[in-house]
Amino acid sequence: MSDLICIGAIAGAFGVSGEVRLKSFCSEPTDIGTYGPLSTEDGSRMFQITLTRPVSGGLGARIQGVNSKEQADALRGTSLYVSRDRLPSLPDDEFYHADLIGLSAYDTGGALIGKVSAIYNHGAGDIVEIATNRHKSALLLPFTTAIVPNVDLAAGRIVVNLPEETEE
Questions:
Q1: At 166, is the pLDDT very low, low, confident or very high (cuts 50, 70, 90)?
Q2: Residue 39's closest CA among 84, 102, 96, 100?
Q3: Which among 152, 111, 155 is positioned nearest to 133, based on CA atoms?
Q4: pLDDT at residue 76 in the model
Q5: Which of 87, 63, 89 has its CA nearest to residue 6?
Q6: In the prediction, which pLDDT does 8 show?
Q7: Coil, helix or strand for 81?
Q8: Please, which contacts does 68-71 make with residues 24 or more away whose CB atoms are closer than 8 Å?
Q9: How far apart are CA 137 and CA 166, in angstroms?
């Protein structure tokens, strides 16, 4: 498990005075403003963020030291990270996406399917992507208790109840 968790990204400038549009990956989007300074993944840059207002596609924010549209545009695409120890503990049935990526995936019979390669959420719930050699392409499955009845972070594995149409 990584010591840093990506909790958002800078989507670009908003306006002409250095305000940025933030995309928050927090379950409550405005929580991104409560974690204090955020950093790049390598820790080379720190950002002190102050949320200003909701905007189309995210949140408006000011970043200390960013005072022009050009400076804000230069930050477009920058992912924002926070140290894991600054995040709240989760209930037993909730997980940070970063903790799931890389886990081995087994079917209910105990056979290895592959590895979790990504988690997506396009608004209708989480989707788990499993890279596998058993199928022509990666498996995309709903991340629900019916499909993924067991997640064992300590053992580095998930159990997947494959729908019949995805089995060989």
A1: very low
A2: 84
A3: 111
A4: 96
A5: 87
A6: 93
A7: strand
A8: 68/16, 68/17, 68/18, 69/13, 69/15, 69/16, 69/17, 69/18, 70/13, 71/18
A9: 11
Strand partners, 8: 24, 80
When the pLDDT of each residue in the chain is averaged and rounded to a whole number, the result is 90
Cβ atoms 63, 20 nearer than 8 A: yes
Contact residues for 72 (Cβ-Cβ < 8 A; gap 6+): 10, 12, 13, 14, 18, 19, 20, 63, 66
Please give the pLDDT value at position 98: 85
Q: Which residue type occupies 46? A: M
Could you tell me how far CA 46 lies from the centroid of its own chain? 19
The predicted structure's pLDDT at residue 160: 95
Q: State residue 165's pLDDT score.
A: 60
Is the pLDDT reported for residue 167 higher than 80?
Answer: no
The domains of the chain, with CATH numbers, are 4-86 (2.40.30.60), 97-162 (2.30.30.240)
